[in-house]
Amino acid sequence: MTQPSRRYPRSVACGDAQIEIARMTSGDRDALVTFVAELPAQDLLFVPRDISHPKVMDAWMHSLDKGSVASLVARANGRVQGCTAILTDELSWSKHVGELRVMVLPAWRGKGLGRVLIQECFAQALELGLKKLFAQMTVNQTGAITVFEELGFRAEALLHNHVADRDGKLYDLVVLSHDVAGVAARNEAYGLRDALGG
């Protein structure tokens, strides 16, 4: 169920502020480096690789250029306040599945930015022809887990001591998933075509 391309940039309300959401390009690299440096160390455990490392950042930008990652960037006051990535692999048996990663600066939490970005990713997933999204995070990231669950994600797996932070502390990892195509089909059947974002 491929959807027509969503128009970006677009302005959305988050709390009492407006934020601009645009498709990320490799030209955003320097702004992203600044953004990542402002994230709490615990937030970096949302992603399997350390995105504060220059080589990992370069690989992300290269993936954007070749189209194996679809990313959005959220800006306010000329600065990146949040971003997303949907990773896919056209050569895998799971090419219908995308891995979703969402990060938001602490100052913007509780204002709905994370929720908005996840909803934008639902629309992106449909645009990419994906049927399922999954996200992974450590079990102590309870706020993020709550937001994902409120948006229809459900826990599928718990991996014990799966992540080690820079100090070697081990964390359990939870994997949550969302049946994007199924929800979209149900919404369309009930006349809610734009419920995942139009």
Task: Give structural notes.
The protein has helices at 29-37, 54-66, 113-127, 142-150, 180-189, and strands at residues 10-14, 17-23, 69-76, 79-87, 97-104, 132-138, 154-164, 170-178. The protein has a domain at 10-135: Aminopeptidase. The mean pLDDT is 88. It has an eight-stranded mixed β-sheet, with helices on both faces. With 198 residues, the protein is of the alpha+beta class. A hairpin with a 2-residue loop joins strand 1 (10-14) and strand 2. The radius of gyration is 16 Å and the shape is globular.
Structure summary:
The chain is of the alpha+beta class and 198 residues long. The chain has helices at residues 29-37, 54-66, 113-127, 142-150, 180-189; strands spanning 10-14, 17-23, 69-76, 79-87, 97-104, 132-138, 154-164, 170-178.
Order of helices and strands: EEHHEEEHEHEEH
**What is the CATH fold-level name of the domain at 10-135?**
Aminopeptidase
Low-confidence stretches: none
- What would you give as the CATH superfamily of the domain at 10-135? Gcn5-related N-acetyltransferase (GNAT)
